[in-house]
Amino acid sequence: MNTFVGMPAFPEASSAAVSDAQLRYNLRKATHTIRAKRAAVVGEQPDWAALRAAGAAIKDRTLRHLDVYLERLETAVTEAGGTVHWAADAAEANRIVTGLVKATGETEVVKVKSMATQEIGLNEALEAAGIRAYETDLAELIVQLGDDLPSHILVPAIHRSRSEIREIFLSKMAAWGRPAPAGLADDPRALAEAARLHLRERFLSAKVGISGANFAVAETGTLVVLESEGNGRMCLTLPETLISVVGIEKIVPTWRDLEVFMQLLPRSSTGERMNPYTSTWTGATEGQTFHLVLLDNGRTSVLADEVGRQALRCIRCSACLNVCPVYERAGGHAYGSVYPGPIGTILTPQLRGMASPLEESLPYASTLCGACYEVCPVAINIPEVLLDLRSKVVAHGHVGQRVAMGAARRVLNSPRWLSVTQRSAGRLRRWTPRRLPGPLSAWSDTRDVPRPPKESFRQWWAANR
Amino acid sequence: MRVALFLTCVNDTLFPETGKAVVRLLERLGCEVDFPAGQTCCGQMHFNTGYRDDARPMARRFVSTFGGYEAVVVPSGSCAAMVREWYPSLGVTPPGGVFELTEFIVDVLGVTDVGAYFPHTVTYHPTCHSLRSLKVGSRPLDLLASVRGLTLVPLGGAEECCGFGGTFALKNPAVSAAMCSDKVRGVLDTGAEVLCAADNSCLMHIGGALSRQRTGVRVMHLAEILAATEEAS
Amino acid sequence: MSSRDRILARVRSALSDVPREENPGDVPVPREYERSRTGVDVVELLVDRLTDYRAQVHEVSDVAAAVAEALTRREARRLAVPPGVPDAWLRSVEAVHDDPPLPNVELDSLDGVLTGCAVAIAETGTIVLDAGPDQGRRALTLVPDYHLCVVRRDQIVRTVPEAVGRLDPSRPLTWISGPSATSDIELNRVEGVHGPRTLEVLIV
């Protein structure tokens, strides 16, 4: 199975993506479509700024008192007949879920799209234990059948065009169940129909369902899943056993708080006034056995950082990906994690630590243009966190850059040395190179180098005023 | 009114004509302009790359150089944003009265028609920090709209970043170049003779590509257009 | 140490900057957003928004007649019916009662399902089911391919906050906004994936 382990740093991975014309076409088309839809439905909401402020504040309240709310959630779920499990890391969460599935005697599970289970590599862990996990969200199905990696939070197969999807369905569906109909067309309607037929019997006979959750209400123990296709309802409703793996930051304090998030999330995410289906359930429902697995897996390290903590407000809407000019060109895979785009650049290095050159490169995978912050429905100041993470990256190593930056500071912090440098540049202006040496060649490969003027402004000012 | 000009190190070193234009423009609008010689760099490059300890002395220098002025005018959206938005995270309190050029003209002087004459077709790129950090809004466009002889043509995808991002252009050259080439295409689609912005760093980036591709499109800082008059042309 | 204790200890140590005496309620939450709004008639708005999702909507006075018409249009006869649906709605329906609960495969073979609802939200074109007697368990409105839903005028609210205030979180809720859909292929919306592909709403 394909994984993100051992991915190269962002500059390398993204430069490969930039030269993939089909990928760039797919991404541009998709992100521009969703941008326009989001802008339209956000624009018609007169109190959007107030909702955004409330959403951020509710999440901040939760995070500042997360211990209280976790215990409250545990109590409420338990009282409603559910069983709560705690997983400190991915391995523990996978062990718990695998054990719960094995206890049912089943060897197959159906899954609703869930970022948390992707993050912990649950499917791979189940596979190793002889349990097959069937992804049922259309985009996840495309990724799973294609032995591919997700490249977007909301639409994991955003990098695939309709004709590529048709190819994947025709060649791979048979190995996983009902084959694609012969003569399958590449029109989205026909492709969706093929997915419906492929999964129909699987849903009706599934005994174990696995999900994540968009929200967990501490006060009532209610879990909330937003979706579009109905695969979520199938997985949450029909199986006898439901296991939900939920990050500890998904909590909201009260039922009433959903009145804010049920407005913020759909409009930011799919650009709809409301997503087609939302399911809420509290504990063991309609005779089901229900297990809630609360997942840390690095979240408490994020929580410990006073600047970076705001990343835990994220409700995984993916609006930041859709407006990001870097994501649009680099594609999701370059971010080396299930969390691509701007939110990934601040979440991945914090969840994993600066474990490799990849994590160290992510805080620099941004021009700091601020488009992400502007659209974030919970006002995560992504540029602020990026700048903070950059200061942590340079705190160790990077000797060459350190020396260069130190030299630059000595010039730039001294009017005298700045003036000397300006005069030298003015004298040497005839020899302004077309190609710059070393790391600066990255500039001159595609752009001309400005020729320094004969005299700097400060020389002119001194002479004329 | 007496104002201090914080020209920025990039303009001082590479684009002195912008500085001269700002001085001409502000003097024409009745200001007395001072260029404090102790000024250097706002510290943005170091801060944005993660070198906060290097940026801090520059921030302190800025405060000691400009602290005594009622108004400080900065012809760069990103440097003005550095001072106002980010100095506090270095533990440095920014002086009050730091204005990006178009904020100063429109809000402080209360002028949108600066009496300029520029008989050319111009398109405007609203740089990210002017747009989203400072939120200068329509001020630059209002100023351009009042310039006699000037034909303003809208830039497609105007609000999208040009891909400069300071050291981003060096650290992620492939993505930066791809963003820049889309911006260049947007500029060429307008048919404008001149691409204008209120920040020379972004113009150096887009202009470097426009020039490398021999497009013939010139880049000009907004101040140079606003300083142009019928007598001078 | 259990993982529960370990995680809670990590959370507490991560929050060492939060003053001990601070309570959750001390963190301010500004709620300046609008809980209700005025504007066009809620029925008109609901019809508009449902139509936007390509649901079929009719304003009716005689439910039984409207149900009969809807079924004729669709050439449908056999509908799953939750126990609390009034007999008066069922004049022309071959009702298959979900008592005892129908197996999934049988639900799948029916022509559709007829239910009431708990709340409808005009601004977002949403119908909320709360598994009440005239709505039944969740599978009932999920497996059949056609969902015919009766909404009473007094069940319609304008905004999401008004709906949240009316709903009981201890009941399993299903919020439905139009038919099943996906945008997973090039972000184009396509109706009809796993849930009912046709949603028809009768507003009484």
Automatic annotation (TrEMBL), chain A:
Keywords: 4Fe-4S, Electron transport, Iron, Iron-sulfur, Metal-binding, Repeat, Transport. Residues 311-380 form the 4Fe-4S ferredoxin-type domain. The keyword Cell inner membrane does not apply. It comes from Actinoallomurus iriomotensis. The keyword Electron transport applies. GO terms for molecular function: 4 iron, 4 sulfur cluster binding; metal ion binding. InterPro entries: 4Fe4S_Fe-S-bd (IPR017896), 4Fe4S_Fe_S_CS (IPR017900), FTHF_cligase-like_sf (IPR024185), Helical_ferredxn (IPR009051), LUD_dom (IPR003741), LutB/LldF (IPR004452), LutB_C (IPR024569), NagB/RpiA_transferase-like (IPR037171). This is Iron-sulfur cluster-binding protein. Residues 70-285 form the LUD domain. Residues 396-463 form the Lactate utilization protein B C-terminal domain. Pfam families: Fer4_8, LUD_dom, LutB_C. One of its GO terms (biological process) is lactate metabolic process. The lineage of its organism: Bacteria, Bacillati, Actinomycetota, Actinomycetes, Streptosporangiales.
Automatic annotation (TrEMBL), chain B:
GO terms for cellular component: cytosol. It comes from the Bacteria. One of its GO terms (molecular function) is oxidoreductase activity. Residues 3-83, 122-206 form the Cysteine-rich domain. InterPro entries: Cys_rich_dom. It holds the Pfam family CCG. Coiled coil: none annotated. PANTHER family: LACTATE UTILIZATION PROTEIN A, UNCHARACTERIZED PROTEIN YKGE. This is Fe-S oxidoreductase. It comes from Actinoallomurus iriomotensis.
